[in-house]
Amino acid sequence: MQKQASQGSTAGSVSDAAPEDDATGGSIRFPPRGQPVITGINRTGLFALYMKEVRRFLKVQTQTIWAPAVTTLLFLVIFTVALGRGGREVLGVPFASFVAPGLIVMGMMQNAFANSSFSLLSGKIQGTIIDLLMPPLSPGELMSGIVLAAVTRAIAVGCAVALAMVLWPDVSLAIEHGWAIIWFGLMGSAMLALLGLGTSIWAEKFDHNAAITNFIIAPLSLLSGTFYVLDNLAPTFQAVSRANPFFYVISGFRYGFLGESDIGSASDVMMAAIGIGVFNMLIAVAVYFVLRSGWKLKS
Fold this sequence. Notes:
Blueprint: H1 2-17, E1 20-21, E2 27-28, H2 43-58, H3 61-83, E3 89-90, E4 93-94, H4 95-126, H5 130-133, H6 139-166, H7 178-202, H8 206-222, H9 235-242, H10 245-258, H11 266-293
Antiparallel strand pairs: 1-2, 3-4
């Protein structure tokens, strides 16, 4: 009896390890534990995450889209009244037309950062970060969904700001180079969305996020040639401004409307466009590896 029981136990253990038979007589092989079943891109999950992030800022669109448009329009009104009197021209156009493109893309970048920097940070503080980490999404898919939603908000803010500025006298948004508007607008928004996601991973409370916004993002945005050309600066400060990636985004975006830029010639603008693309790729790789490591997310 003991021998039969031993044989039965052995047979049972072998049977548990063997694949099961399906209705057609074939065997069903299950993947090892921990091995993902979804192959390729989880499009359903990526779209669900994207829509979740988009609906989050659309539910409070008065604050996330229209309020930035009003704030940016106030910048235009103040600087136009203060500096644009007497028919002052910059780069051959009225001052209002010069400053308007820079304000549009500045609003886009700041709101892209605000959107992505809130995503993971709010989950960590509220204890709901597991809702983003548990679904079958790879680090690349998680990063893509958050960044794409932030870029979507940036585009919405840019359109709202442009609509508000068209109503202001002496502002012309005639398009000279459409590719520059699209490229620099998207690259600037993606750059700040990636930086915002990195900040969201690093920050442990909203004060950390506010510190990055107030002491890094805002100064780089305002001191990037939005309200002036580099020729008005001393050589030392010109060199500092040219080391600021925000300068190339704002000046390149302005080039798309005015056909002129303090970056330089058309070939210089093209080189700046390539440089911004490479810079974004480097940031994306860095953020991806940090996100994949689970640093400050899974501990």
